User: Fold 3-isopropylmalate dehydrogenase from Agromyces indicus.
Amino acid sequence: VTTVRLAVIPGDGIGPEVVGEALKVLDAVAADAGLAFERTGFSLGAGRYLETGDVLTDDDLEAIKAHDAILLGAVGGVPGDPRLAGANIERGLLLKLRFELDHYVNLRPSVLHPGVASPLASPGDVDFVVVREGTEGPYVGNGGAIRVGTPAEVANEVSVNTAYGVERVVRYAFAAASARPRKRLTLVHKTNVLVFAGSLWKRTVDAVAAEYPDVAVDYLHVDAATIFLVTDPARFDVIVTDNLFGDILTDLAGAISGGIGLAASGNINPDGRFPSMFEPVHGSAPDIAGKGIADPTAAILSVALLLDHLGHGAAADRVRDAVAADVAERGDANRSTTEIGDAIAARLGATVGAH
Amino acid sequence: VTTVRLAVIPGDGIGPEVVGEALKVLDAVAADAGLAFERTGFSLGAGRYLETGDVLTDDDLEAIKAHDAILLGAVGGVPGDPRLAGANIERGLLLKLRFELDHYVNLRPSVLHPGVASPLASPGDVDFVVVREGTEGPYVGNGGAIRVGTPAEVANEVSVNTAYGVERVVRYAFAAASARPRKRLTLVHKTNVLVFAGSLWKRTVDAVAAEYPDVAVDYLHVDAATIFLVTDPARFDVIVTDNLFGDILTDLAGAISGGIGLAASGNINPDGRFPSMFEPVHGSAPDIAGKGIADPTAAILSVALLLDHLGHGAAADRVRDAVAADVAERGDANRSTTEIGDAIAARLGATVGAH
Ligand SMILES: CC(C)[C@H](C(=O)O)[C@@H](O)C(=O)O
Ligand SMILES: CC(C)[C@H](C(=O)O)[C@@H](O)C(=O)O
Assistant:
C-alpha cells in the first residue's frame, strides 16, 4: 500500500459539499488501487479570510507543499460582499497556489457523455482536452495603474510569455496528443493581433511538432475556436493555449459538454517538484450553498484526474466509468449532492449508508 | 438629396463579391432615403500588397479620411502564403484604419432571425448588441520581445486602458441600452484576474450607471459570459466589453445566431471627426473566393448599420426587414452570392437583371 499525503481544501460555498462526495469516491477505489490517503484539511477561502483576515499565509503554503497532492472544492465568497472588498481570494489564494506550486499545466478534459444534454442541437462526439498554460500570460499580475480615479487614469495589464514557459506546456500537450487515438493538436492564440506572444507560441509549436511526426497540428485564432466549439466540437482532440484563452475556452467547453457541473480540472506540476492540485472548474456558487443540491460530479471527475496523476490510470478509469454510467441514467432526476455521490461510490463497490 | 462620399474597400477573397451585393442593396434604398452615394474604390489588402509592397500608405489614409463613410469587404490573403510572411495585413490595414480613424465603438448586433438555424437546440429570442471597444486594450500593439529565437526569449503584450477610452465607449453603450426596449447592460471583463484594467472598467460602468437609472446593469466574467451565450443568449441586451473580449464574444455570438455569414459590424467614430467603417465580421475566406457562393448577407446588414450611422434609421430598417424576409424563406436552398443580393434588392424595389 502506498500512502499519499493529500491536502484537502474544501473552501467556500458548495466546495465542502462536493469535496465530501469526491472523497467518498476516492475512498471507494483507494484500497483496490493499493493506495492509502492521509488527509490534512486546510481551512482556506473567503470564510477563513472573514474570520482571521488571512488569505494564504506562508505557513499554510509550506504546510501544503509537504503533501503529495491537493484536492480543492471551490473558493470565493458572495459576489459584492463588502467585507471582501479588500481581498482578492482568486488572486490571493487560487492563483497564488497555481503560481507558487508551478502548476504550469492546467488540464481540462471535455467529454460529452451519452445521456447528457448539451445546449447544442447536434454536438457530435465531443472528447477533447484543453492543455491551458497555468503560470504565465495575462495572469502574471504584472499590471499597474496611474492617476487612479481621475479622468487621466491609465491601467495596464502585461501578458508575459517565455520560451521556457511556453515550451514546457507545449511539450506536455504534444505528449498528450501523441498518447491519444486521434493524435491531433490545435494551437489556439491570436497571432494576428498579439504578434509577439503569438509568434513565440507558433514557433514553439512548430519546433516541437518536428519531434512528433505522428501528431497532426492545426492552428486557430481564439475567436474562430469559439465558433468551432459550438458548430463542430468533435473536431478537437488536444487544444494547447495560453492562460487567458484557456480560461475562456474551458468554460465554453464545459457548457457544451453538459455544463460546468461536470467539468473537472487538474493544475499540474509535471516535474513533481510541487504537489498538483485537482479541482472542479465551477466556483463556490454561494447561492445554492448549504442546500445539498450541488452536483458533485465535477469534483468526482477531478479525483479521476488525481488518480491519473498518481499513476493509477486504471483506478481513474473506474471512476470515470462509474460517472459515465451514472450520468447515462440521470435524466431529469433531481438528486441531492449526497445521493449522486452515494450512487457513484456504490457503483465502485462502496457500502453507502443512509443519510 | 444628400451626397455621401463613400470609400469602398472590397479587399481580398470573397470581399469584392459580397461588397458588390451590398452596394446593390444600398442603391436600392438610397434614392427613397434622399441619399446619393459618391463612391471611391480603394484597392487595399493582400492583393495590393503582393502587387506593390504597400499595405496602407499615408496617401491612402488621407484619401480615405476625405470620405463620409467606408464600406469594407474583407482583407487577408491565403493563410500561410509565404509571400505574405513579411506583412501583417490585419494589423497594418484593418487595425490601422480602426486606430487611425478613432473607431472607438465596434458595434456588433446579434439577432437570430426566424427561419435561421442556430447550432443551439433552444436558443430563445436572441437580440443583443455587443459594444466592443475599438482603440485600446490588448490591441494597441504595445508588445515586445527580447532574445527572440533563444531559450531565454521573453515576449510581452501590454493591454492599455484609459479612463478617457473606457468612459467614452461605456457612455455609448449606456445610451444604446437606454434606447432599447429592454434597457439592460452587461459589462463583460475579467476583473478578478486583470485587476487594474478590470477595476477601471467596473468603476466607469458604476459611475455612468448613476446617470442612467432606467438601465439595469449586470456584470459577468468573460468565461461565464461564453457559458450564457450558449445556455441563455436571450438574457443579453447590450454587452459592453474590451477589444479582445469583444473579438472573442462576437464570433461566438455570430455562431449562435446563424453563423458569421450573417454577422455585420460597424467601426464607429461617434464624434464624426473621422469616417466610420462598416464591414462583415467574417474574413476573406480565400478557399471559397471567386466561386460566387459566399453569403453576402453580413455585408448587406453592414449597409444597414451604415444607414443607421448616417441618420437614416428608416432606410436601415427597410434593409433589415428585407434581409429578415429573405432569410425566413431561405431554407437549405443553395443560392449564389448574386442570387441572394438580387433577391434582397428586389424586395427593396430594385429592378434586377439576369446575370
Ligand atoms: C477564479 C478564476 C481566477 C479562475 C481563472 O480565471 O483561472 C477560474 O475562472 C478558473 O478557470 O479556474
Ligand atoms: C482580423 C482581426 C484583426 C479582427 C480582430 O481581431 O478584430 C477580426 O477578428 C475582427 O473581429 O474583426
Summary: Chain A has a mean pLDDT of 96. The pocket of 3-isopropylmalic acid (ligand 1) is lined by residues A 90, 94-95, 247, 281; B 192-193, 223 (CB under 6 Å). Chain A touches chain B through 63 residues (CB under 8 Å).
